[in-house]
Prior knowledge:
The complex is a heterodimer.
Chain A (H helix, E strand, L loop, with lengths): L1 H4 L22 H19 L16 H27 L21 H8 L3
Chain B lengths: L5 H20 L12 H4 L8 H12 L2 H14 L1 H4 L2 H26 L4 H9 L2 H33 L7 H22 L2 H28 L2 H14 L19 H15 L3 H8 L4 H10 L1 H20 L15 H9 L2 H39 L5 H25 L2 H16 L2 H9 L5 H21 L14 E3 L6 E3 H22 L30 H7 L1
Antiparallel strand pairs in B: 1-2
Amino acid sequence: MSSAGTVDPDRPDLNDDVDHDTVPPARTGLLVLAGVLLALPVVALMWVSSYSRDEPRLGGFPFFIWYQFLWVFLCSALTYTAYRIVLVARPHRPMDDLGDSSERAVGDAPRSADGERGERA
Amino acid sequence: MKDVNGVALVVLVALFALVTGMGFWASRWRRPTSMESLDEWGLGGRSFGTWITWFLLGGDLYTAYTFIAVPAAMWAAGSVSGFFAVPYTIVLYPIIFVFMGRMWSVSHRHGYVTTADFVRGRFGSRGLSLAVAVTGFLATMPYIALQLVGIQAVLEVVGLGGGDSVIAKDLPLFIAFALLAAYTYSGGLRAPAVIAFVKDTLIYLVIIVAIIYLPTKFGGWTHIFDAAEQKMAAPNAVDGKPNGVFIPGGTQYWAYATLGLGSALALFMYPHSITASLSASTRNTVRRNAAILPAYSFVLGLLALLGWVAIAAGTKPIGADGKPNAQLVIPQLFEDAFPSWFAGVAFAAIAIGALVPAAIMSIAAANTFTRNIYKEWLKPDATVEQEAKVSKLASLVVKLFALVFVLLLDKQNAINFQLLGGIWILQTFPTIVLGLYTRWMHRWALIAGWAVGMVYGTWQAWNVANPRGGINHFGGSLAQMPVIGELGYIALTAFAINLVVAVVVTVVLRMTNVPDGDDETIRGDYFADSGDPRVQKVPQPIHQEAPNV
């Protein structure tokens, strides 16, 4: 798994035995964890009966209102955590143009982003 | 008929001139070697990083119409009609986090500009691709028109647009849109990206000031919520039922939840959302944005509450024609409560807020037309330069159409169509999002599900009457759901039926071995990032050259 994710940039040819018509390897447990974190806000907010009440008020705001505002921040935090987890769970497996005659690198693919990395392709 | 608010008008015009200048400058910003391709004109070179994408998506998704309509709904009918926008724009982000990475990657590898491009490549089906393209186009058009309604609301409260002559009445709107069309034509997606900075800054400024200043002026939050509760509970003059909903009761849970979920699933099926997402420079840009975009949801929630602030303030939204118009409630509240110069800033925030989405929507609609109708059906050998040219012209036509739509037809038509657009666009979800994960669904089954969802949704929406507004059809987005029996969002019901049909027909077609289309993508494409090369399509002429060599 780690070998596919950490190809030596100077030797992209190490990579040419990878079959790209496969899903890059991932740590399933971490992906499931990220999925749970992402599902939490959806479940919480779709469960309307759990928060459709007036009391307790907070600074004059009904519970119904401030509880949903609270979820803006919780959702943001959960999504960011899921993002960090997903980065670890499935490291990027670089693709190349080797081994498939119908593909080749295109010079004008996004310039700013691939800058130095585009050189090796 | 009211007097012109001079100071507010001057501030509004000055800020408008500022963004116009920025819009024209945008074509020089991060200047590409050539603007003559859809990647450059239509997707800003696919080069936007995290912060530009944040401003662009925020400016794109939270439209002027939202800023006008959500508080108006809160003011008139309460939380089920208005505050659902908050759960909607919260659950939105975990949902797009899940599939937008795959969408970006496969589009990067294959150079897709629209969702219909992807559908064409994935399912090898021109028919299914056309269905997705036409749905996206139809759903976007009234949405653009509604941005004009947002500008109109501001102009009406400032005191313009009340004249007797048709030309004088709509001239400001005409000028605003002509300028928008001109710099979108020259700058492409870079224009709204630049303007979005101003738009979002102004919106944040206005909302923060409004939410701190207005409650102190109108008796504090406790009083505001009490006033809202009182108004919502009071019987309506037309039918004697309560005016609206303060906090949803047992029979409204389904309505509240389905409105939120259905809208969230639908939003990123719109071409303009996809355009802004695909302009990001890496696979993870949009995912990172899913964590920081909720800042806008917070602002939208505060803005929604301003609808209830207006109740406590006793705001009377009366249109230029002397009739009450709920859509004017927020501009009217600003005019009544703020000093003139700050009211001008607030009006500019809303008016400029209309320009960003209108520009992106027209670009997205133009890209859809160019790629999935012009190139696919009319001129398959079009070069990238021709594509860019057609798209630029199409963006003008789309805006002109929206202008004519708003000026000649009743505004209610635009609102009806936008309601329908939301129902329609969700019917492309199974094809696009499930298509990102699996090809198990058969292309013809997806078309069948789409068609049934479209017809069912349209029929249900047609049947909704709203006696209070004197409307017999398209009176709202809620209808009784089959099986469950409660009121629910029509789009989500149609979506569920769509899915069932697609699955059943797929099973039948698989059993009868009806052939699949060709899939030009491979599994690894869905995980590609910016450093990975684009797949070069085998050029057509190879076929003809071979015998000559």
